Amino acid sequence: MDSNERQGTWLWYPEDYEIWLHAKVSVLRQFRGYICPPPWRLDSAYDNVKFRKTFDLAAPGKLTLSVQGMFVLHFDSSMIPTPYERTPVTTVEIPAGKHELMVTVYNDKAVPAIYPSGCGNENGWEVTSHNGTWVKAASWQFNEIDEPPGDFPFSYETVEPDSVKEQGEGTLVDFGRETFGYVILLGVIGKGTIRLYYGESSEEALAGELAETFDELVVDSAVPTDYVTPVTRAFRYIQLKLDPGITYAGIRHEYEYLPMERRGAFRSSDERLNRIWDLSAHTLHMNMREFLFDGMKRDRWVWGGDAHLGTQINNYVFFEQDVTKRTLVALRGKDPVERHINTIMDFTFHWFLSFREYYLNTGDLAFIERSYPKMLTLMEFCLGRRNEAGMMEGFPNDWVFIDWAPMDLRGEVSTEQIFLCRSLETMELFAEKLGDDGNKERFGKLARELKDLIFKLFWDEGQGGFIHSRWQSELNRQILKYPNIFATRFGYLDEKQLDSVKQNVMLNDSVQKIKTPFMRFFELDALCRLGERSHVLDEIRSYWGGMIDLGATAFWEEYEPSVPPQEQYDMYGDKFRKSLCHAWGAAPILLLGKYVLGVEPLAPGYAEYRVEPDLCGLDWIEGKVPTPDGEIEVYMDRNRVSVKTCGFGVGVLRIASRSMPSANDGKFVQIGEGLYELRLTRPGHLYEVELAAATVEVK
Amino acid sequence: MDSNERQGTWLWYPEDYEIWLHAKVSVLRQFRGYICPPPWRLDSAYDNVKFRKTFDLAAPGKLTLSVQGMFVLHFDSSMIPTPYERTPVTTVEIPAGKHELMVTVYNDKAVPAIYPSGCGNENGWEVTSHNGTWVKAASWQFNEIDEPPGDFPFSYETVEPDSVKEQGEGTLVDFGRETFGYVILLGVIGKGTIRLYYGESSEEALAGELAETFDELVVDSAVPTDYVTPVTRAFRYIQLKLDPGITYAGIRHEYEYLPMERRGAFRSSDERLNRIWDLSAHTLHMNMREFLFDGMKRDRWVWGGDAHLGTQINNYVFFEQDVTKRTLVALRGKDPVERHINTIMDFTFHWFLSFREYYLNTGDLAFIERSYPKMLTLMEFCLGRRNEAGMMEGFPNDWVFIDWAPMDLRGEVSTEQIFLCRSLETMELFAEKLGDDGNKERFGKLARELKDLIFKLFWDEGQGGFIHSRWQSELNRQILKYPNIFATRFGYLDEKQLDSVKQNVMLNDSVQKIKTPFMRFFELDALCRLGERSHVLDEIRSYWGGMIDLGATAFWEEYEPSVPPQEQYDMYGDKFRKSLCHAWGAAPILLLGKYVLGVEPLAPGYAEYRVEPDLCGLDWIEGKVPTPDGEIEVYMDRNRVSVKTCGFGVGVLRIASRSMPSANDGKFVQIGEGLYELRLTRPGHLYEVELAAATVEVK
């Protein structure tokens, strides 16, 4: 049999695998030996589902079927006698002509699923959760009949330590950089306990019981035996402590990961920037697994805000959209909506905005359509929580987050209203794309009314920016960067307001600093949009470079340069609680790709895009940005720019230059003071531009 | 230690045990060896919950705790190191003063639960499903620390067969009446298979593979060994078929049941009626288990209509309210509401009406309050499905049932609107009792408007009753009993209309007959309300007596006297599919208790009640009707009536008599033509009335 011939695939109720898997991984978090289930509802798959397919065969055929769960078959509404426990293969003879097969499956332990093979395989199968409608059955990469949807299919690689040395009463093992997986102790002889204290820093590993995670291996072997730790951990360092009399021959690490290609790239004449990009890619890769997690050491949870940023970074390096989709499905869970995403009001809005980014980058309207009903119910939940003024305040037990920096989060916080407004605009956009005219009208109107109110209440002409909040009818006139960042990013400000925000807020040193790399991304992104690319590059060098100077091999959950080095790993009032490999720390990839290589989609799925490379004082830059159809490759130095277009869409190359001749061959068009544009109409071609002459060669 | 001292009890999130258990039992149904999961969503317990309690001890105390699931403890917000797998007993020292203990529990296999003992035991514990609110933790009879909520705690009794005889190629075992449980084959010797074919009738058992259920025991024993069947079955007969060479010493049956006392009773001078009452009580008992099931042989499912009638019958014999509550919780499941109860529109309404009956009989407002949020969401679901006229039609894939008799169920069926109207009135009542004024107004207004519309559209003055339906703007003027029955029962008709319905519909032989004992109850109940008690008694004798004449030891799912005896066990187009022990078959208990003994609550929990015994031509009647506080005992013959009042409330004894002196001692008050009333003001007393003299003695 041709090994390329597709045999079949496992099918299930849409979203059930993601939701089931999310619950399983959400309870893996441990803290010093104890479990930490998340403080939100964990949904599961539907236990009781029914699959159906109508066959219309010209000649009789044979369907083989495997089922995960108890099941019963009905053929043209009559039961087919079959054993109801899972069998490797059940065979059903399908006569010619039109016939319907139904498979009722019950499973309260794993995802109810079927594997049909033959007679069209997975095509045409529908499934119901008994809610009165049938939907297309879902599948993913579970193509082996004996590997039904369950444990996530990771890849593994055995890794040797960089160094192993005795230190104090134990042994310190260093794997050279942040990693994740199991630990193998080779050739163990003796009886007793081996203790492994994990550390993202050597300080944490050496702190023993104060480390966030540790394991104990109870060993008892007279001949050399290998022992493997029972669960996966994140670490760079391990402190080993062995009971007297125990010996071992070596230590290895089984690295567990999602195989992904770095389709994006960035190199420049500044090695520090290059290193920042590399560590960012590693940081993100560590956190992209079943879902996009916040950080691997501590939470291993899926958070709406982290996902909003992380999935955008992903678009500039791996462009791995299955993780994004799983993440957005997992965050939302099932109906009814009882709380905000992760209980955090702004994370609900980040969830909506993630879909906007997803759609812009991929053009995948099918996923938007599938998710739209759940967007609607979540938006209704939000609208039901507006106060009399039409704005959203945190309800008791709601978490209003924004950033870890101190601020008064009571009442009507302007940033939250700006988020709500953008979420409404996003719903308006999707309603339009999906032909839901009534909701397009409704959400559009609500967004416009809210925007008017935001400006009326919170725009402070005197201070030149948005003020923070209103609480109990009293305005809190504090100027913080957050509302100004997002109003800038969402295009809510006119030229004059943009300039005012830039001078009076964004570049104003007296305004309170942002505390997380998460919110720092949005700040720097806004600054780029305000024309401060070189300034942003300096910030990347000093802020992310500052972590490297402190020994980072991945980027952190929080970084405040003024904190003394010995306290840099502390957070939440505890030693070593800080995550040193946090997805949102990878933001430089996004900033460098979007504003230095300068690549950005303008229409869904890169149907239109802009390439606006900017040396920002560097000698040269080069890199790649992934798109749904190949990569856009960019090179620039002081003399020339080259762009290789991706396989689809129409781009525009924009060059800022004071010395460029005025588009003498008619290809470059001057669109403003020292600003030139060239249309990149040919997919998959290399455009080479000599800046001095403004000549363009297309290969 | 004093064995009466309460040690503690298992606690969980309210309704989680019922919902978890319901899913488990719903998939036990089998048909000829294959599973039959129900065609509706099966919910489960919340996997991830958190318990809390605030202690305020005068002196330090010790709390012992067992947990079903993984768990972590926090004391005054700090984690207490404890192993997170379930331990028999974890001990927590609680200091004096105010302190909070939190227990986070995760369990995706069983109901997350805790067993606190000491420091106030289960009192004061709250729990959250992470929906933003805390509620009082629920408990039931799981009081042993090593018996957490799981398998339902049944009772068992070993039963000998009535007869065992060779018949054809096998052996026919008769247990004398319908029963349920396991079968034990004693002293088996030999190797091979023993086949057990179960039958509610001997015909079914003898039909072998055509029986609804059968089991195979694979045996292999050289010495006498007992074998037990793997699952519970319902049967009266078993046909045994043994492979050659297999012998056995005897057969027994392990009867599995919920222990309940027959608090109600009925005896009369008519032995046929007495037998009907007995078989009714047995029929109901067989179906009252974890929940109130429809029938034990086939479905073993919980149905809203069956529950509405079955729980009312229960009120006149067992008064076992835990089963009723579990049943109503299981039927509703969790939010969101996506379909009608059991997918049947009228069963949604039966669910509302069950609460009304429950409240009237028990006065238990606490259960109403706990269930009220789910009543609201279900009612919103209904209101969201009204058409432009404000009426409910079956949506595609909705099941509109009413009765198994043939009728056109398309469009606006008048019976369904009458059900909706009564459901709205029920919500109005509960909203009033719970102080939800806005909803009281709203539901009341909707009910009044709908009632007006029902009369305007469907009341046919010419035919003297309600017509059937409207479909595509065309009225279907067929007269069926259903709308007229329920309008009568709900008190929607004036005297003239009642008389018209009685003559033109209810006693009109040309009107199509009702097909199920289910709907026959409502018919006969309405006839009693229309003054036709003696006629109803005749109907009970002939209809239910007719099943006894055919050999019934329990009452059936459906009975049509005109069907030939050899086809009486067929249903749904198949041999022996009919359930011969169906809860709704037990309705005579309710009719005899309510209209012959004549006992009925008038105010919630029997705060007020009526006793209106009626000989209906019998020489004497006697019996008991259970109430929340003892039984009301009634005796009547042609000369005297005696009533022993229950322990609570005020009754009224109503006597119809043509010969009674006009209340000469001032105790009986004449309230109409030949109708006298005596107030029974003393709880727990015996009132003896000599009818000829109208004297009353109170003991």
From TrEMBL, chains A, B:
Boundaries of every Alpha-rhamnosidase-like N-terminal domain copy: 49-239
Alpha-L-rhamnosidase C-terminal domain ranges (all copies): 598-637
Span of domain Alpha-L-rhamnosidase six-hairpin glycosidase: 262-596
InterPro entries, per the entry: 6-hairpin_glycosidase_sf, 6hp_glycosidase-like_sf, Bac_rhamnosid6H, Bac_rhamnosid_C, Rhamnosid-like_N_bacteroidetes
PANTHER family on file: ALPHA-L-RHAMNOSIDASE SIX-HAIRPIN GLYCOSIDASE DOMAIN-CONTAINING PROTEIN, C, PUTATIVE (AFU_ORTHOLOGUE AFUA_3G02880)-RELATED
Protein name: Alpha-rhamnosidase
Organism of provenance: Cohnella silvisoli
